[in-house]
């Protein structure tokens, strides 16, 4: 302190003396009464930020996905838990390895890899071998997400793309659906496979009851069977304003209208089509993925309707029983195009035509 | 509130979009305005307004009186600057102001007497008289932007004005100067309004207040109800408390339903928007002839010992204000001139208070929270929050590509830097900074 006083009295401009060597006298400056001499933080406005974080958003999605996971485990047994665990760990480890190997900032903490892992697991049948799950994780995190620049840069939904890769690579394992524990059968067809086209619907045998469809007591992927749990999670996401209702409503609504028309207004058929397959999981949790869906509301509506049309067309006229994954993937790819054509006018924007008119008027 | 008839107050239809809910934190709302003792010295920068800087009209060693003109300019877009204390000019030269820039300024050492020059109330019979007088008073918009008020009040023949909007929204957190103005000087506000109505023949005058200030609404309502002589032109309007409700274009939209087109001013849609403190000043000036030499400032923030609303001579150093409010309770990390959404982080506290500074806020390390910036996840919250309907994340991309044409088409220039986008961004992106960069890219391209 004495030394400091000396320098202060000796220096012609005492205010600048402590700042000249800030590293040398950190304690002494702190002890001084004139706090102003410490450097102030200067940043661009705004100086307050909302509490929302990427991690918080991802945590909300994870919370919303938990009921469907438990329902899957309850319906299919502990093997479902193993598949979920393998997928989540696989995705997190893949992300960790990528960040380490590429010497990038560690992004495991944002929890987006956990969300991808959960969604991937929910889109797989129970009996799938763990090594196939790991291939899915690799495709989702490394190929689809990190090759294109990491979170926010991927053009397609990682979980959906990974599922499709697995589906075309291991068709039999991916369509070998275990029946619920309660049923006698070991393997079973999914409701969508049983339903078939509207014409076959009336004659369909062994179709689960509608209440079973809601509770998840039918064959299918781990996360998609229990519609009630999915809707619970969806309500949570909507209430927390993590997702906007536009995409899910347009998506499910379009499928519903299309199915009603196709079946000549058979409401039961329509309900089966909505509750079966991955429609609710896809509409609320995967089509709403921020990165691969349009930002503006009109774009979201177009995106949702597009997904709905594709799903309905694939289900009714395609050779595949299920079309949710493919339709979302196709619309993901169309997303930049949709955004380009649906960009909303900004405040006070003068339309191109009027601009030209005004210019023309001025010239005349 | 009980004696208020709800139907008597206009309720703004929520025509606007976007905006964010920011915690109000109006700590000083009930603190009556206190007059700061005469400071030892004042520093009066020659540019305290948007437009051409003034040229000093005094030199070192001159004795000046309170209210004496010490800087003026012959340019149109400029207003004179007056001495805010009496005393001797000790320096005419460059000083560092809050943003770190060096600007020419006049430094006056106070003699503590506050001897005033002779003030004569201006005689106002026409709009021209008024604008001339307002220019001479040195008035700039006291809400923060610092636009010379006489320019707003100058009529142009091709732009008929039918509406005056008195802006008392005060949507920035912490700041309470407009609220105190409404509570303490409501008579001045009304006197001004009547003078302006008589001169300009406005069809309507709308006083817009956010609904989180019931006391201000009650007081203004009482006075607005006495408005019989003026054909009931004055209305009170409550606005939803939603940042940035007080922004000029938002204000015009909420109050009248008119949209100001890009690149235009409220006058183009027949409106004049004035801050409530500026309006109150007009009446004071017309009564006394005393120019703009002091203003009200909120000194607040969580590391100010005793937050207050102060009446302060222009040019007083920030340090003097903070000392008067009991100093800091902990070492400050960030000091702002203005509100937390649009205010400026100051470099040091020796900087002088300008005409347009409505608040001085100090924050300790616990409340200065820097979100670590990560990659955009395209959640669209910035677009949803933007009152101008822009897509900030897209503009960021285009700015980094330096694509001036695409930036113009995306509407970059209508951005008012309100900060709603950066406030709501979960990835902690400094979006306002990118918007400024984008504007710079456009200016650069235009310059070529």
Write a compact overview of the structure shown.
The complex is a heterodimer of chains A (about 375) and B (about 450). Chain A is built from 19 helices and no strands.
> Which bin fits the share of residues in helices of chain A?
55-70%
Poorly predicted runs of 5 or more residues of chain A: 1-36
Please tally the β strands of chain B and state the result: 18
Name the CATH class of the largest domain in chain B. Alpha Beta
Q: Any idea what the shape of chain B is?
A: globular
CATH fold-level name of the largest domain in chain B: Rossmann fold
The residue-averaged pLDDT of chain A reads 84
Q: What is the end-to-end distance of chain A?
A: 79 Å
Structural class of chain B: alpha/beta
Multimerization state: heterodimer
The major β-sheet of chain B equals: 6 strands, mixed
CATH architecture of the largest domain in chain B: 3-Layer(aba) Sandwich
Rounded radius of gyration of chain A (Å): 28 Å
Provide the low-confidence segments of chain B as ranges: 1-8
DSSP strand content of chain B: 15-25%
Query: How would you describe the shape of chain A?
Result: globular
Contiguous helical run count of chain B: 13
Strands of the largest sheet of chain B, in order across it? Answer: 2-15-14-18-16-17
């Amino acid at each position: 302190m004495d030394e400091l006083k000396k320098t202060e009295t000796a220096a012609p401009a005492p205010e600048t003396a402590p700042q000249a060597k800030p590293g040398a006298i950190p304690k002494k400056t702190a002890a001084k009464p004139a706090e102003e001499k410490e450097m102030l933080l200067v940043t661009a406005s705004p100086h307050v930020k909302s509490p929302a974080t990427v991690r918080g958003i991802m945590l909300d999605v994870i919370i919303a996905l938990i009921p469907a996971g438990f329902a899957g485990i309850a319906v299919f047994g502990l093997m479902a838990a193993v598949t979920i665990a393998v997928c989540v760990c696989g995705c997190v480890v893949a992300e960790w390895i990528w960040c380490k190997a590429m010497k990038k900032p560690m992004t495991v903490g944002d929890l987006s890899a956990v969300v991808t892992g959960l969604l991937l697991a929910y889109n797989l049948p129970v009996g799938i071998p763990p090594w196939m799950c790991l291939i899915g994780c690799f495709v989702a995190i490394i190929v689809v997400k990190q090759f294109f620049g990491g979170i926010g840069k991927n053009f397609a939904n990682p979980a959906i793309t990974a599922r499709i890769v697995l589906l075309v690579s291991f068709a039999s394992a991916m369509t070998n659906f275990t029946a619920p524990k309660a049923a006698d059968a070991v393997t079973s067809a999914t409701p969508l496979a049983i339903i078939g086209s509207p014409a076959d619907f009336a004659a369909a045998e062994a179709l689960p009851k509608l209440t079973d469809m809601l509770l998840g007591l039918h064959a299918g992927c781990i996360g998609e069977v229990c519609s009630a749990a999915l809707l619970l999670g969806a309500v949570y996401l909507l209430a927390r304003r993590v997702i906007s209702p536009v995409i899910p409503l347009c998506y499910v609504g379009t499928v519903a209208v299309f199915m009603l028309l196709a079946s000549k207004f058979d409401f039961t058929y329509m309900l089966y089509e909505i509750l079966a397959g991955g429609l609710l999981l896809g509409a609320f949790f995967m089509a709403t993925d921020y990165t691969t869906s349009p930002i503006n509301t009109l774009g979201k509506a177009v995106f949702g309707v597009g997904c709905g049309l594709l799903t309905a067309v694939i289900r009714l006229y395609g050779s595949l029983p299920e079309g949710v994954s493919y339709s979302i993937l196709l619309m993901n790819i169309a997303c930049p195009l949709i955004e380009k054509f649906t960009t909303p006018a900004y405040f006070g924007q003068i339309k191109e035509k009027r601009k030209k008119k005004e210019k023309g008027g001025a010239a005349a | 509130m009980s004696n208020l008839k709800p139907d008597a107050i206009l309720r703004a239809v929520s025509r606007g979009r976007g905006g964010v809910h920011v915690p109000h934190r109006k700590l000083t709302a009930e603190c009556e305005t206190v007059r700061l003792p005469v400071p030892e010295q004042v520093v009066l920068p020659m540019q305290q307004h948007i437009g051409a800087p003034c040229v000093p009209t005094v030199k070192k060693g001159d004795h000046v009186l309170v209210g004496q003109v010490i800087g003026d300019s012959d340019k149109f877009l400029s207003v004179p600057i007056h001495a805010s204390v009496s005393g001797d000019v000790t320096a005419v030269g460059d000083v560092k102001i809050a943003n770190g820039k060096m600007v020419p300024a006049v430094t006056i050492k106070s003699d503590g007497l506050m001897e005033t020059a002779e003030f004569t109330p201006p005689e106002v019979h026409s709009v021209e008289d008024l604008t001339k007088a307002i220019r001479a008073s040195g008035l700039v918009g006291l809400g923060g932007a610092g636009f010379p008020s006489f320019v707003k009040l100058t009529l142009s023949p091709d732009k008929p004005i039918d509406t005056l909007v008195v802006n008392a929204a005060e949507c920035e957190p912490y700041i309470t100067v407009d609220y105190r103005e409404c509570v303490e000087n409501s008579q001045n506000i009304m006197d001004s309004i009547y003078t302006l109505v008589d001169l300009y023949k406005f069809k309507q005058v709308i006083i817009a207040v956010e609904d989180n200030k019931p006391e201000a609404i009650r007081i203004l309502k009482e006075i607005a109800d006495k408005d019989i002589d003026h054909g009931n032109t004055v209305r009170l309007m409550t606005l939803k408390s939603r940042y940035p409700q007080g922004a000029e274009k938002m204000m015009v939209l909420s109050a009248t339903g008119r949209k100001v087109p890009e690149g235009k001013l409220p006058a183009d849609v027949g409106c004049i928007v004035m801050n409530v403190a500026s309006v109150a000043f007009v009446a004071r000036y017309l009564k006394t002839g005393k120019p703009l030499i002091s203003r009200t400032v909120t000194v607040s923030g969580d590391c100010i010992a005793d937050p207050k609303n102060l009446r302060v001579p222009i040019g007083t150093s920030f340090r003097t204000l903070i000392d008067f409010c009991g100093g800091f309770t902990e070492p400050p990390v960030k000091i702002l001139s203005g509100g937390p959404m649009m205010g400026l982080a100051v470099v040091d506290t020796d900087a002088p208070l300008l005409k347009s500074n409505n608040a001085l806020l100090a924050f300790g390390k616990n409340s200065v929270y820097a979100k670590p910036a990560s990659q955009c996840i395209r959640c669209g919250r910035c677009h949803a929050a933007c009152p101008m309907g822009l897509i900030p994340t897209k503009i960021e991309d285009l700015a980094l590509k330096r694509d001036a044409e695409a930036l113009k088409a995306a509407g970059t220039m209508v951005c008012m830097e309100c900060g709603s986008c950066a406030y709501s961004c979960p990835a902690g992106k400094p979006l306002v900074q990118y918007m400024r960069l984008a504007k710079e890219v456009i200016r650069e391209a235009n310059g070529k």
